[in-house]
Amino acid sequence: MSRTQAQVNEEQVAGVQNGWVMLVLILGLLVADIVLLIVSDPPLKVVCALLIPVFVILMVGFFSLQPNEARVLILFGAYKGTVRESGFHWGNPFYSNGPQTLATQLAAMQGKTGGGKPDLRAGRPLRNRNKISLRARTLNGEKLKVNDKRGNPIEIGAVVVWRVQDTAQALFDVDNYENYVVTQSESALRHLANLYAYDNAEDQESTLRSNVDEVSQALRKELQERLGKAGVIVDEARLTHLAYAPEIAQAMLRRQQAEAVIAARQKIVHGAVSMVDMALKELADKHVVQLDDERRAAMVSNLMVVLCGESEVHPVVNTGTLYT
After folding, report:
1. Would the pTM count as exceeding 0.70?
2. What is the pLDDT of residue 115?
3. 158, 237 Cβ separation under 8 angstroms
4. Quick one: 136-244 is in which CATH superfamily?
5. Helices (H) and strands (E) in the chain, counts
């Protein structure tokens, strides 16, 4: 059995008539037809009576668009173009109205009127005349529990700012572009979390916690590759939540504390060695005291204890000679 690849659609600009001009024209013709229906002879009355339903059908062709809103024109299943210009328009009355968006359907099913009664229109098919909002929308994704690059369970969440760029792709290339954005955003976030570690362990590599800008750019790039098939452009994508899963949070906190202690100790030891070296050089250059290897080792040991010890040091005064 042969399989054909799905057709990729591309938006086309459609031309429609000015709604105000057509409103005056149709109303004028309707009034003239009614006058003829009253004063004309019987044969002409039949023609005038038949024209009244025609004018009523023509009135269905009026529609309005707000700024950053578009209407996709479909005539008997064929795509005829998209209208993006805001204002009052008139088009072919047989252009498909199309189903209402899923979000509006759910709102109508669950919504209530001001008197607290259910919306009775929820049971009837809802229409939006194939209108698509071109405004920027924000998807605040839920927190996902995934594994990072090292297999540690983490919680991660992201916010995505997106908008429809190609109305033909959004309406015809995917079943429901709003659901498509939600599903693909979750999938892209899960995939991204698997590519990065939560934070640095041994290697100096990009991580989710330390390289937020790099991770956000990678997330936006992957989302654009996925959502471009639905005619959607991603303006911004950033992480909003990042944490270890509760079952390992305490263990990871102890690991971070241990890493911080080790890093602090390394700095302390490095500074102490530099100070001891400087002290020995100053004593030797200024001929303050001459020390053999054994006494030099003892001084180094004492200085390192003083400089690296956590508790307060209590010196012991030697009242004898240096070698007793």
Report:
1. no
2. 43
3. yes
4. Band 7 domain (3.30.479.30)
5. 8, 10
